[in-house]
Amino acid sequence: MAYLLINRLRLAVLCLSVLLAGCVSQRRLPYLQGKDYSTRTPVAVPNTPPPYRLQPNDVLSVRVQSVQPALNDIFNVTDGRNIMGGDPGNMFLAGYNVDAGGTINLPTVGKVKVQGLTIDEAQALVQQQVSRYVRDANVLVKLLSFKITVLGEVRSPGRYFVYNGQATVLEALGLAGDLTEFGNRQNVKLIRPTPQGNEVTLLDLTDPALLASPNFYLLPNDALYVEPLAARTNRANAGNWALVFAGISSVVLILNYIQITKNN
């Protein structure tokens, strides 16, 4: 009987060790772990968002407003209901696509080179071109294809569209429902497409210096990947180990019962 109790104790200790290996330390969970933060005085962190410059395959909304409704309708191919409804497919079909040459093709005006321009610069250029045909026109240009992708250890991974022209790393994670407790906050990959290929940067969400980083602001088509902690694998394997330990315990009980029966 003593031998049986010892075996049970060993199995219990082993099971407990596996379960503890699947736990996540509290100190690894909070974001922006700075010692300079105060409940009384806000801490200013200067950071200027980088300007996004238009590239091929971007999709723009061009809205023309003037006292000549008939001429406005020539340019306003984007239905306002699609924008309010937030249907990316409809917005893509109704918008102006930046072609491989970096131009958009406007009715009557023709091709306008917008590659390399910011949204404000593109709006000023389109305003200048449209004003040649529409008197006292007011032109609004918006980027419809501002999308980001969040993958890995978040609650709702997927692709998300941004409609305010700007997004931060924290906003992107908020759209994805935040990290799970198994997300590695110290090793988040930022994948950014460039004309030369892709750039990969590692972000540490626990470091307050992130707020001042140029990578704090996301650009269209950026992707975030949150790596899982080792605790995720340990927790996933805990159930399998529990079955193994239960089987071993059953075998030990049977063998001990047979041994006791023979001795009697």
From TrEMBL:
Organism, as annotated: Hymenobacter gummosus
Matches recorded under Pfam families: Poly_export (PF02563), SLBB_2 (PF22461)
GO cellular component terms listed in the entry, alphabetical order: cell outer membrane; pore complex
Database matches in InterPro entries: Poly_export, Poly_export_N, SLBB_dom
Residue ranges constituting the SLBB domain according to the UniProt record: 147-226
Residues in Polysaccharide export protein N-terminal domain copies: 47-143
Membrane spanning stretches: 238-258
Family: Belongs to the BexD/CtrA/VexA family.
Localization terms from the record: Cell outer membrane
Keyword annotations of the record: Cell outer membrane, Ion transport, Lipoprotein, Membrane, Palmitate, Polysaccharide transport, Porin, Signal, Sugar transport, Transmembrane, Transmembrane beta strand, Transmembrane helix, Transport
GO biological process, one term: monoatomic ion transport
Membrane topology: Multi-pass membrane protein
Superkingdom of origin organism: Bacteria
Gene3D superfamilies assigned to the protein according to its UniProt record, in alphabetical order: Outer membrane lipoprotein wza domain like, wza like domain
GO molecular function, a single term: porin activity
Lineage: Bacteria, Pseudomonadati, Bacteroidota, Cytophagia, Cytophagales
The protein's name: Polysaccharide export protein
